[in-house]
Design a protein that fits this description.
Strand 3 (11-13) and strand 4 (19-25) form a beta hairpin. The protein has helices spanning 44-49, 72-75, 78-93, 131-149, and strands spanning 3-4, 7-8, 11-13, 19-25, 29-34, 39-43, 53-54, 58-67, 100-110, 115-124. The chain is of the alpha+beta class. The protein has 4 helices and 10 strands, in the order ββββββαββααββα. It is globular, with a radius of gyration of 21 Å. The strands form 3 sheets. Strands 6-5-4-3-7 form a 5-stranded antiparallel β-sheet. Strands 8-10-9 form a 3-stranded antiparallel β-sheet, with helices on one face.
């Protein structure tokens, strides 16, 4: 097993967006295999400069969905609870239930064109190779819940002002 001293490393996420399975570590180089099988070799100093996040133990995903201002009352009361229930059901349906360690759904902020609700999910590190798939799934589950409950997902608004003729 690849390790840096006491720290066991399998799946890492680098600050440049690269994600891969560490298959070898030496003082000189770190070898990664990305999803799909591409091999990458980094000088160890370059690898460490990319601030690797070890996903192998546990990891957190944080996704935000915006809903319409028409839902202002519900956005801070029932919507987070209903969205959480939907996500919990989908996690179970798709076989991740035993691997979801923590789930929080909260009102995040009043944004310019939407009321934002944040979904924070902690997963067991055994799912690290599915990191991006889980991110996409969380977005899909949020959209499914919006469709199911009739919650509008607004698009960014652009307001134009006419200058007085002069």
């Amino acid at each position: 097993d690849p390790c840096f001293g006491w720290l066991r490393v399998d799946w890492v996420l680098l600050s440049d967006g690269m994600r891969g399975n560490v298959i070898g570590i030496s003082q000189e180089v770190v070898r990664l295999v990305a999803r799909g099988g591409a091999h990458r070799i980094y000088q160890t100093t370059d690898f460490l400069a990319l601030s690797p996040t070890n996903l192998s133990r546990n990891f957190r995903l944080k996704e935000t969905i915006g809903i319409s201002y028409d839902l202002q009352q519900e956005a801070v009361t029932s919507i987070p609870d209903r969205l959480r229930a939907h996500i919990e059901q989908r996690v179970e349906d798709e076989g991740y239930a035993g691997k979801l360690l923590n789930l929080r759904v909260e009102f995040e902020r009043a944004n310019t064109s939407s009321l934002d609700v944040v979904v924070i999910a902690d997963f067991d590190g055994s799912l690290a190779d599915l990191y991006n798939r889980l991110r996409r799934s969380m977005q899909r589950w949020c959209v499914e819940a919006c469709n199911l409950h009739g919650w509008e997902i607004p698009f960014t608004q652009l307001t134009l002002h006419n200058a007085p003729a002069g």
